[in-house]
Amino acid sequence: MKKLFKIILNTIPRPLLIRLSYVARPILAFFLKGNTYTDPIDGKSFKTFLPYGYGNQRNNVLSPSTLSLERHRLLWLYLNNETDFFSRDTESNSALSVLHFAPEQCFLKRFRTLNNINYTTTDLLSPIADVKADICDLPFEDNSYDVILCNHVLEHIPDDTKAMQELYRVMKPGGYGIFQIPQDLNREVTFEDDSITDRDERAKIFGQYDHVRVYGRDYFDKLRSIGFRVEEVDYTSQLSEDEITKYCLAKGEIIPVVFK
What we know:
The chain folds into 2 domains: 2-68, no CATH class; 72-259, Vaccinia Virus protein VP39 (Rossmann fold), CATH 3.40.50.150. 32% of the residues lie in helices and 21% in strands. The chain has 8 helices and 11 strands. It has helices at residues 2-11, 14-31, 70-82, 105-112, 160-170, 199-206, 218-226, 241-246; strands at 33-38, 45-46, 50-52, 58-62, 96-101, 117-123, 131-132, 145-149, 171-178, 229-233, 255-259. The radius of gyration is 18 Å and the shape is globular. InterPro entries: Methyltransf_11, SAM-dependent_MTases_sf.
């Protein structure tokens, strides 16, 4: 059955796969139910997770229930264990104003149900976003949001400097953001080359045909140059080997946490 799932994930266009996933998730979750791996987002356990990836498949990474990947589960654990994102006491504090770019399917409904946050989603193309907006020209006032989530977005943006400046502008002083990106930590300098136009070649070099760069370790310094204080959080280093295995996380993945 895992082989069949791999064939399906490789052959069905991603937009259609996402639509089908709403129907397929309960079926997948039923057949893969077990006790080996756990998705911390919904607490459900399975004998295996599903493969996922463009070109180079990663095995045992896609949750059958929430369709979360390693980065989503790591972010959930960090927000739950290290911040008041889920637990903020609104009797003594005002609700957190949260801006979420390109909201992920595994988070959207769960975040909408939280009473301790005022939640706004935005995206240039997504029909499910609250506000249709260009990240390089946001329609929000200065100093508007306590928390900004912008994950696996900036690698799609040609002018990521302008996008970072806009993120800084709309974040409140004292606020924080999490700006995850696909990153090659072995690469000191970010690589981009607009002369590469072939889709297959771009997918091979950049990870996806619609990525415009491969970020290196200088990503953190670029955020600092915008004005953010940046913490390079290796949250897996605070977890046990058993937890990393149980939640199917990518050991050593860095969470870029920024502050204004």
